[in-house]
Amino acid sequence: MGTLGGFLGxxxxxxxxxxxxxxxxxxxHALRLSAPDLEIHNADDVTNGFAxxxxxxxxxxxxxxxxxxxxxxxxxxxxGALATSLHQAGIVIEQIVARAAGASLQRAKRLAVEVNASxxxxxxxxxxxNIDADVVWFCVPDGAIADVAKSLATAIDWTGKVALHxxxxxxxxxxxxxxxxxxxxxSAHPLMTFVRGSKPVLxxxxxxxxxxxxxxxxARAIVKSLGADPYSIRAKDKAAYHAxxxxxxxLFTALLATSEQVALCAGVKRSAxxxxxLPILKQxxxxxxxxxxxxxxxxxxxxxxxGTVKQHLTALRDVPLAQQVYVALARxxxxxxxxxxxxxxxxxxxxxxxxxSRG
Length: 359
Prior knowledge:
Elements: E1 11-12, E2 30-32, H1 43-49, E3 64-65, E4 70-73, H2 77-88, E5 93-98, H3 103-114, E6 118-121, E7 135-138, H4 142-152, E8 162-165, H5 176-179, E9 184-190, E10 206-211, H6 213-225, E11 229-232, H7 238-248, H8 250-265, H9 270-296, H10 300-303, H11 306-315, H12 320-336, H13 342-354
Parallel strand pairs: 4-5, 4-7, 5-6, 7-8, 8-9, 10-11
Antiparallel strand pairs: 1-2, 2-3, 9-10
Helix pairs in contact: 11-13, 12-13
């Protein structure tokens, strides 16, 4: 018995319907303290059943429960990273559901092979769709969430299921139609970037979660099992939250692209711009991590070197969009970061802007 010694005095009480035992390694048992003896079907029952932070699904006893089975709707960049992390955490993924044939279905098939799942095509005929998982996670574009949910509302039995989506800006209201059919609904958004050719590890990544109480409870347990960091967000704050995440990655990337354009004006070859920028970018992020924004801030604005700021803006007249970005960021720096003489720098910004741009 070895590691089972500490569990003596517990009894496994299998509460769920028989359909939940389709996968022999996917234990769907609810655990409850009861009789003084211990009944075990196999060792996996013990390790899975006593997993810390395991999800408590609707209708299951609150004391203990096994990890839920998950179906992912969508096979894009986010779904790929999520599926890989879930699989590595020992969570069973039953299906990867593609919304269309062609490239989408091929991605779903490749991903399904990686995580020991089946690939399913949503298609037009929903009479053949069969989703038996405990949790259905929608990993589709924001504009498609409500439509896909509506199409599945009457196609499967939602009683007792948890429906989640991963939109950063939208709330659980996108899945409201499924609540009417018996599901509990919520959203769980990872503060991470997902692009083709890169599959980030989700351990340590913050997940903003909101929705029905039981959906939030299950989502938090799943996220914890990934080694990620779940936290609660109010539905009314999601738009601002997503704007924040957009500053942190997509608009930061836009700033890098703008920087590359300025490098060209400085005579740097296009092929060398990224390589030459990487050392200062990496050190800036390291400084930000260690010292915060104020401690990481350097350059002419913190020194109140108005003359240099004027020179910069004059040089940027040939790249008017970059000049506008410079002014906007410089004003943000004056508002949020330390500077020895804000008024002097502000005058320099106004003076350069009055000079106009070429083109």
